[in-house]
Structures are given as C-alpha cells and as structure tokens.
Design a protein that fits this description.
The chain is built from three helices and nine strands. By secondary structure, it is an alpha+beta fold. The structure holds zinc ion.
C-alpha cells in the first residue's frame, strides 16, 4: 500500500508517521526528493533486519559544513557521520528507510517536519542496517 502524504502543515509528516507507528505494518518511508524505484524498495523489504536505510548524503545548508552521509555511528549526540561502506549505524535520516513493528520500541513523539528523524531515533533502539551504494538525494 502506498500512502502519499502531502506535507502542508508543520506537523503533517509527523502525524502521518505516528498514525502508522502502532500498526502491524512495515513502514517504508520515502521522502519526496529521494531516488526511488521498486527495486530499491524491494531491497529493503527483502532484508531480514528490522530497521534498514539506503545510504544518502545530506547537504547542510545553514551550517556551511561539507556534505556527509545521513547516517551516524552514535546517538543521541549525532556528530560522527559514517564513512562510505559502513554497514551499521545508530542514527539515520529517514529519507528512504524501512522500519518494522519490531523496531518501533516506543511511542513516536510529535514533532515538526524538520525533527521527525530525531523522533524516530528516540522511538527506536535497534542498530540501523545501511544499504549501499548510496541513493541520490536531490535535495529539493
Ligand atoms: Zn537491511
């Protein structure tokens, strides 16, 4: 089932994800500016791990820092972005990820769209499996 979510209000993204969080469904979240295909989605669904992400890069706009992967080795203090090819991380951006019910350990808190990834991180405990090669993040 594909659920398109027009994110008009600040809380629309969070509220939609929250509405699926306590169901028995596996969530595959794909943000609007990510490279996506049936094959990329299937690769996540075929993987046995409960929380998986495709690697992708972030381009910090406001900080002026260099682009880095959206996955980090630790949380909640997210500073150590992973290097290419690292297979496991503690934190991931949620641009293109799979989250099974097993991975959803706690209630998902409500947040504005900029912080839904942090809310997901706070509501999950398991390590995140990173799929390579990185997918394109068009950042629009
Ligand atoms: Zn995986």
């Amino acid at each position: 089932m594909v659920v398109p979510v027009p994110c008009v209000g600040e809380l629309d993204y969070s509220r939609t994800l929250r509405s699926w969080w306590r169901t028995s469904r596996t969530i595959v979240n794909v943000e609007h500016d990510m490279e996506v295909s049936d094959e990329l989605i299937q690769a996540l669904l075929d993987c046995p791990h409960p929380f998986c992400t495709h690697a992708y890069t972030l381009f910090p706009v406001s900080t002026g820092k260099r682009a880095h992967y959206a996955q980090a080795a630790s949380k909640p203090h997210i500073e150590d972005w992973i290097a290419a090819g690292v297979e496991w991380c503690a934190f991931t951006g949620i641009g293109f990820c799979k989250i099974t019910p097993e991975a959803r350990a706690r209630r998902l808190g409500e947040s504005t769209w900029q912080f839904v990834d942090l809310a997901v991180s706070a509501a999950t405990d398991c390590p995140v499996h990173v799929h390579w090669p990185a997918v394109s993040h068009y950042h629009v």
